[in-house]
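Entry 14: structure prediction run for N-acetyltransferase. Input pasted below.
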Amino acid sequence: MPPFTLRPWAPADLPSLVRNANNPAIARFMNDQFPHPYTEENGRAFIEMAGQENPLHILAIEVAGEAVGGIGLHPRTNIERKNAELGYWLGESFWGRGIITEAVRHMVDYGFRTFDITRIFARPFGSNLASQRVLEKAGFVLEARFEKTFFKHGQYEDELMYAVRRP
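Run finished. Output tokens:
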């Protein structure tokens, strides 16, 4: 596995963000807020938004000095306030190297240290077997499967609920 760093997004990341994010194979398993095609305008708006949070909860995954993916924890509110949702993506040329599994482990540690939460959950598509493996390797447990709750590209997809609890 190549070394990677989790760090804040910076304006200089725009070219690598657009190059890695503008991929239908990535957008396929993301919610509709992750656009395809992924333009420079999308990237600028994202980098600006990600830098406004305090504490930071959306980080760049850097490999060899380049931002090649993103990972974020989204703390919930109201009666879900002890939970945070995890989301992530990685440029396709970096798949299969163990980077995202380790990034998830680091983000879980960061989340439990930084936020007043007791549970981190992720909701992969039922057909996204790679993401399910990532979560399982990182210690997440499948809590539920909801049939045909996601609707993307004219098709229904199962929603899975994986979670890890504060040790």
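Notes: The longest strand covers residues 141-152. Will compare against the previous run tomorrow.
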